[in-house]
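Predict structure. Chain length: 396.
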Amino acid sequence: MKEKDDYLQNAGINTRLSHIGNSPSDFHGFVNPPVVHASTVLFPNARAMETRAQKYTYGTRGTPTTDALCEAIDALEGSAGTILVPSGLAAITVPFLAFLSSGDHALIVDSVYTPTRIFCDTMLKRLGVEIDYYDPLVGAGIEQLIKPNTKLVHTEAPGSNTFEMQDISAISTVAHRHGCVVTMDNTWATPIYFKPLDHGVDISIHAATKYPAGHSDILLGTVSANAAHWERLKDANITLGICAAPDDAYQVLRGLRTMGVRLDRHQESALALATWLEGRDDVARVLHPALPSFPGHELWKRDFKGASGIFSIVLAADSPEKFKPKAHSFLDALSIFGLGYSWGGFESLAVHVNLSDRRVAKAPTQGPVLRLQIGLEDVADIKADIEKGLAAAAAI
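Prediction complete.
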């Protein structure tokens, strides 16, 4: 098995995705690990029970199924350990609870995933944690925002809905100089296109609901830590009693096998459509980091190996009163696109983005922001559907 692991270290990404996290020899030669449904685990004697002297002790602390997925994620992230939680939001809240205490201060990027902001402004504040939001473009300038009690800096690149890029390495360097833990929501890029721990991040967070699962039917989050922070993350997760279901872990592990080829398709289709949309007069802006015109493009090109299938457009509108009517007309005219809040699955989705909670990274002023998840459908069909939406919006 070690010989195989050593070989996979230098193999291509699709080869690695096909083989990480499984050990057929451990399960009578079957390619996929069994789905182990477990709560109680029996011990051979009282001494073993007292000392917990065996690999598995209770269902909340892992099974062969969940361990297989954790091992696969560790192989992708380069992490010391990974925990599985029931959702992408839980993947953010668990490390926040693990590393923040009453009286601490946390810096949260202002382009953050909206439910993260809600958690910070309610639960964390109620627990006595001070929160400040910072400009995603701050880079090394974050040093000016760090206080004596700052304990955690949360990053997300690209930013939710508006896709601002962050200089993760610069932020991490400064944060570590002041003893802060750096966390990152890396859902957009996945570990295939960006490996946070290689850029100084301590805790890499992923909504496996999205590209790893890939089929719009699983809720699951992964949290991967470097060696310095793994034990505390693991202990906090055990203390909170949060764990993922083995059936969901199995489905995500299965999704990982095709994630590379799916991401290639998402990337290719999304970039083709983003480039086409950029040339239209009825689109004021296209918010996609892989476009050379995008303000954060150079950072994306420097640090990322690819782009996923989600970006936003800003419809052209001559007055704020028309923002919502134009957005709704666009959405209601769509046939292939579903109107739904998730992304990363096989189907295209669209949503009118609400950016009213921003403090620093203000919303575009040229028109309404529409987030497009480009699925695996044929580009010509997706393009025709978008054209229907644009025509309907233009009529307003």
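Summary: The chain is about 40% helix and 15% strand.
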